[in-house]
Amino acid sequence: MRAVTFRGTHQVAVDEIPEPTILEGADAVVRVQRAAICGSDLHLYHGTIPGILPGMTIGHEFVGTVESVGSQVQYLKSGDRVVGTFHIGCGGCPACRRGDFHQCSQGGVLGYGIAFGNLAGSQADFVRIPHADINLRIIPPSLDWDRALFCGDILTTAFGAVKNAGVQPGETVAVIGCGPVGLMVVISALVQGAGRVVAIDRLTERTKRAESLGAVPLSSEEKNPISAINQLTQGEGADVVIEAVGGSKTLEMAFQLVRGGGRISAIGVTAEDTLAYPLMSSLTKDITFRIGVANIHRDIDETLALVTYGRIDPTVIISHHLPLSRAPEGYRLFAERQAQKVLLALD
Ligand SMILES: [Zn+2]
Ligand SMILES: [Zn+2]
Questions:
Q1: Ligand having the closest approach to the CA of 109
Q2: Upper half-sphere CA count for residue 264 (Cβ side, 13 Å)
Q3: In the CATH scheme, what is the homologous superfamily, with its name and number, of domain 2-152+295-345?
């Protein structure tokens, strides 16, 4: 079968490799119909994820058709249309039993190397999914591949970050970063009841995309975000700030944008280890700060329903549909910011 493999920094290739087989009774093998390139795949591409070795199959956003199932799989059968969660939970460890599937002690992330469970990725004709009953969801019949694909990671990641901030009806939500996840935050915050979403990015062109989704655009190149938010909120600050970039600079900005008693939810993938935490102001301002990777299993049924019933259309951010054979070009375009969201078609 064909598979997108990591070859080295800024090098991926489409290789011929053996098809995966059922290894454990709870496994399923899925024939992939669509895969997407995620912002976190770019961290692999840039060589910043330890434990990804040359020749490994990458990718973790996908939809497809169940090809075969192991003897212990109860709820899935060959021919089912499914979307997969990007992280794999076992369903049985203490973390999974608590509902913290993203903290599974047995799990990992598809196509993310040895440090993340050593699981082959999904940018391939077939992918093996461990604990298939836990990690695959059946796609409602009326939902197309492209829309369903967003529920396995990017949309649900953003939706969960907004949920973690406990947005109340009518609140002002500021989102820092208008990349693909930031745009999904705009959509998610509005559907969860935000009165307005202020979308902040350095690039005016990116804030315009957020504006087309219903946000108030705020280009940090044109205006100081802190004074602009203060002006918009009569000096109060934003009720909620969602950080969708990653790194200490934008997190520091989040603490300056949030109102007293407000909430910050950080979802941006960071390469930094530490943050100079604003202790005194957080204490006096009573700030709730939450940071963590997404728990897709917790929220995917909600995003699937919202997408199925037409309340959310995540496909508006797709800029490129490419055949799998052109995956290397897709990575290059995405890394050079010439693509907003790349979907790879395998049929
Ligand atoms: Zn991802
Ligand atoms: Zn587990």
A1: 1
A2: 26
A3: Medium-chain alcohol dehydrogenases, catalytic domain (3.90.180.10)
